[in-house]
Amino acid sequence: MASLADIGMSAALNILSALIFLIVFAVLRLQPYNDRVYFPKWYLKGIRSSPTHSGNFIKKFVNLDCRTYLRFLNWMPAALRMPEPELIDHAGLDSAVYIRIYLLGLKIFAPIAVLAFGVLVPVNWTGGTLENSKDLTFSDIDKLSISNIQPGSERFWVHLAMAYVFTLWTYCVLYTEYKKIASMRLHFLASANRRPDQFTVLVRNVPPDPDESVSEHVGHFFSVNHHDHYLTHQVVYNANNLAKLVEKRKGLENWFIYYENKYNRNTNIRPTTKTGLFGLLGKSVDAIDYYKAAIEQLLKEEASERERIISDPNAIMPAAFVSFKTRWGAAVCAQTQQSSNPTLWLTDWAPEPRDVYWPNLAIPFVELTIRRLIMAVAIFFLTFFFMIPIAFVQSLANIEGFEKVFPLLRSLIETNLIKSFIQGFLPGIALKVFLILLPTILMTMSKIEGHTSLSTLDRRSASKYYLFLLVNVFLGSVITGTAFQQLNSFIHESANTIPVTVGMSIPMKATFFITYIMVDGWSGIAAEILRLKPLIIFHLKNTFLVKTEQDREQAMDPGSLEFASSEPRIQLYFLLGFVYYVITPIFLPFLLIFFGLSYVVFRHQIINVYTQEYESAAAFWPDVIRRVIIAMIISQLLLMGLMSTKHGSLTVPILVLPLLTIWFHIYCKSRFEPAFIKFPLQDAMVKDTLERATEPHLNLRAYLQDAYVHPDFHSEDVEHPMIIEEENNTLVPTIRTSRRSTPGESKYNSEVGSECEY
Amino acid sequence: MASLADIGMSAALNILSALIFLIVFAVLRLQPYNDRVYFPKWYLKGIRSSPTHSGNFIKKFVNLDCRTYLRFLNWMPAALRMPEPELIDHAGLDSAVYIRIYLLGLKIFAPIAVLAFGVLVPVNWTGGTLENSKDLTFSDIDKLSISNIQPGSERFWVHLAMAYVFTLWTYCVLYTEYKKIASMRLHFLASANRRPDQFTVLVRNVPPDPDESVSEHVGHFFSVNHHDHYLTHQVVYNANNLAKLVEKRKGLENWFIYYENKYNRNTNIRPTTKTGLFGLLGKSVDAIDYYKAAIEQLLKEEASERERIISDPNAIMPAAFVSFKTRWGAAVCAQTQQSSNPTLWLTDWAPEPRDVYWPNLAIPFVELTIRRLIMAVAIFFLTFFFMIPIAFVQSLANIEGFEKVFPLLRSLIETNLIKSFIQGFLPGIALKVFLILLPTILMTMSKIEGHTSLSTLDRRSASKYYLFLLVNVFLGSVITGTAFQQLNSFIHESANTIPVTVGMSIPMKATFFITYIMVDGWSGIAAEILRLKPLIIFHLKNTFLVKTEQDREQAMDPGSLEFASSEPRIQLYFLLGFVYYVITPIFLPFLLIFFGLSYVVFRHQIINVYTQEYESAAAFWPDVIRRVIIAMIISQLLLMGLMSTKHGSLTVPILVLPLLTIWFHIYCKSRFEPAFIKFPLQDAMVKDTLERATEPHLNLRAYLQDAYVHPDFHSEDVEHPMIIEEENNTLVPTIRTSRRSTPGESKYNSEVGSECEY
């Protein structure tokens, strides 16, 4: 076990690396040519314009003002300065609540750390067991931990009392925070501007009707059963083919503009391109004419595909977005059961238009349950047996496998350097590649489960990832061995020895997790703010690929909060905090630094960098609380296991804690969770009444008509033939809500738009 | 282990006792003086009148027509003859669905029994293990069971296949039955006459308002938030004191009528009574005058208590029954969240008026969660540690304890007979008394949990009782030892050895459970139809206590289906059936006889005897299915445990079964359960539209006004002062819905009613 000096050494190293990251960040972010990497959000908001347009040539790229370098940490107070209401306004409630998870960590663990250092550390330090028993190797860290107290000592009552105090304090913080977030959400929803999703319900599993089309059937059903409230509806088209065509056309349009610009700069030479692979092979043609013709061809294909979709009844999915005259009507429809067959006419709040995950809208009910069953089994196997395919790949990646596959390379492989590389590095790579791909795999699994909004997909992926981290990182580190071996030994162990086994090895792993928190937490967060990957990619793109202003906009990838992968990692730190707050209090300061640093960094990032893809109004918060509660219960069970080996009579009082925690969870859930699922009628009525008073002549039908059209049906500012075909529930174009609606694009669209009318 | 001959002997004995019960029943039910015991339902319906009023004296009491005795089983076809729709009409959907539980047993196990005897019995019989191994004692029963097959034999694949076939068949039956019951429920609700609960929602946790009374607050809230639909409401009064006074008055009224009748028969002597204890001590007074004065006094007290309740704001509970103009409006309100605080304005379907459990209406939300926490802990201790207090009582009930408490009785106790009685009998009595009291204890616990309707109370009690039976009867019999010892050994055993331990002892317990099913099932059901307890009590009351016709009505206790205690017992048989259908197929015929006999007996009982206290429209069915599913999963785990000792490679294919069962349950639940919880808007709209067309001038307000008044506020046909005080939500009297509203009572009420107006 590591001594205090070792830990200090490690801490110094990690602080140093974190500091280097921060200093590099401070320098890089001041350079104008990095401006789009570190402040993309302001560009997207249209507030900041490119600094390369003004000033002398050097100043465009390098910041020569030395004074700015002296205040290299001044982004920190700046990040903290923006008040929360403004932050919500600027970055959305999702982001604002996301960083409150770090704040939650600070609120829980800061007072606990003070108390633990005031009470538990002296009690442990003077325990004196380790000094007396000379046969044990021990370190200073252990002298501060519970290991320093003799089994059976009455001092454990202090730990018991502290466990209760800490738990109650955590309840307090969780309760007030849950309450706060719930009221923030309700306030956000109440003060939100008029949005289509407030009036709209997503209806799935519309039953087939022999006499009517889906659209007619939906219209009739809701005008009968919600006759005072139903306004209009939009059917959902299966537009996956169309999406491909649009994607292809956009690529060609970039090339078109690139060559046009090139020609404009030098009008003497008509630029040429080759028709073959990537413009490298084939015969040379005039580039501008070639791309113009290709785009026109694609536009025609798009138009005919659109017509096919509209005329083909099979392209209409049995789902629809139904809009109501009032928020009250929508709230009623979303919360009630429509038909006596509960698998038909499933109604639910419509997600925001940009939050909709279109491909999943048409999955029938039975298929949905089967998909979920299969995915539940798959996630179990993925969590516990993921090492098997990796070991298989690793075995392929050994020398003999390589030589078999590439016999020609044998002489090369036999070189010592390459041999050691393959043997020492490749197996690790297989695991690393898997871990990098893991969030994508989990997201794919969530998509297969059939959720209809991006926010739900994120939340479901986060749950899966948490399970994986819990089993493979936490348990895997505590009990060395693969998850499969653990599972095997757990099955063969008695139910009450599992917490004992795990609990006993917990104190010994404290130094490992302290190191983990410094490497993964501190340096990881400092690296996050540096945005090394986007920085490199932006400059690569900027140098080689950017042809148009629009391309530069797209090269500037602001990213977004990766809820699905980063939230479970925070939860791991919560778990570690709960596990160690009684056992090894020295753990807590490291945790607090992590939470504090993360809070500042992510606050800076959501202000300056990240752009949300959707706004779910903090719908993920109940998941966060649930996972914190799971972490508490696990820590309490482990504490019980450990205590049963130290002072048997304490087992029962500790057993009360998980029961209390479960009850607390049930209470909080019933108290606050409805605020995240349902929309109360009272609030809907207030907002409706207010709107009726302020805007009595609002044409809601026009407002809602085109809100839920498949994004690729928006043919940018052009009226479509389909308007004539369907009288009221038409699919007229609207202003794009996604961030790709850049000035360059829309300019171009208005140019070529008229072509697609025929 | 018992041989086939032993089982046959036991079967013969039990068949004999069952036959005796049936013959005694056949004889007794034909006697006119028992008519009110065996056909009370027809009396309550007013279809049958007392046979003692007509014919000669002997014939009034004894049936002398010998031919009727010959057809002593003819009640069986009679019970089966009534078609189901008529049965639902006659006895209600609850009862009709309840007996379908037995039908479900027949449907599941009859084809399985045929298949098991066709396939499994030959396979087992020719297994030949037991014959070859001479050191084992075995019986013919065992030769038919899985024990007769050599471990590792490939014959187990037949059992595996059969387990799959049986399971799939069970899914089939459960699915179709669930579907059938769901549609029966929806049809019942759709075709039901207008009932107050269709328009009414129970609102709980009305927040206090400084400026308004509860009634005003409720009125304003709903007229704002459901302004097109809200009709009227009734607040809930805390009328527990009043209920006591009314109870007392009713007793006095019986005496009053008794003495009046006595005086009418013999007008010479004014009857007298004594004012002291039970009319036995104290000075003699004129009985009629005395009781008349006492009743008048009580009526005055009642009136003042009513006034106190109405004028005292503390007597108004923060709950109300809110009625709507349409079923659609009520359905919307019941299914939606009203306020942004989900613990306020809790809305739920109002139970039927007679189904309301009034004392629980005012429990605040926080208290409710605490109560449920405490009860969850209590039910755990009751299930696993109930033997501790009983052992304590038993230890008190020994000779020494007795001699200490009653030193005077020492010489008597020392008598051998009494000594052996105390030692041999009293400890058993303590357990028996506990088991008799158990349903009451569980019901009390459910009441503490705070459910607001009698039907929910029954369902919750049934769940608790099922847990108790599962742990203490099933597991307790399989693994001898108390539940506490089992729990202890389970905790100390590894998780996967529990099914093995239990599974291995399953085949050995087959004969025990066959005997159990014959004693508890066959004879128990035959005893049920005899109604020995109500028979004796009726005749005792009739002889000693019946003074008036009203008393005779009350002495005639028709009883009702005791869902809370009898449904869990059926579930125990389902569990045994699933556990043994692969292991010991010989078990199945005994089970089938139980289900068949029960079905006929209970069909007879619900037609002729039982009267429902409420109608929940089969709301309990999801619970029934859930428990059947639990039984299936338990049986599959035990089969897996057993197979792992017989043929290890079969463990994995059997492991698939419980997973499949869980998935099947989730699917069925989402498919059908909403039909038992929610009321679809489409159906509500259809019924509303129909009603509007057929009865355009219906005064719904008048119809609903007095539906949800506390039963003791109905002052029988008398208008109360409170009508003047509260304008619209008044508490006007209505016709009593409970079965106690007999002609005698109402006659008397109209006589004295006018007195309570001042």
UniProtKB/TrEMBL annotation, chains A, B:
Residue span(s) of domain CSC1/OSCA1-like cytosolic: 198-360
Segments crossing the lipid bilayer: 12-30, 101-123, 156-176, 373-397, 417-444, 465-484, 578-602, 624-644, 650-668
Compartment(s) where it occurs, according to its Swiss-Prot or TrEMBL record: Membrane
Domain named CSC1/OSCA1-like 7TM region: residues: 371-643
Positions of region (Disordered): 737-758
Key word Membrane present: yes
Family under the similarity heading: Belongs to the CSC1 (TC 1.A.17) family.
Keyword Ubl conjugation: no
One Pfam family matching this protein: RSN1_TM
Compositionally biased residues, Polar residues: 737-752
Protein name according to UniProt: Uncharacterized protein
A GO CC annotation given for this chain: plasma membrane
Principal location class: membrane
Membrane topology value: Multi-pass membrane protein
Keywords: Ion channel, Ion transport, Membrane, Transmembrane, Transmembrane helix, Transport
Gene Ontology molecular-function annotations: calcium-activated cation channel activity
Domain CSC1/OSCA1-like N-terminal transmembrane: 7-177
InterPro entries with a match to the protein in the record: Csc1-like, CSC1/OSCA1-like_7TM, CSC1/OSCA1-like_cyt, CSC1/OSCA1-like_N
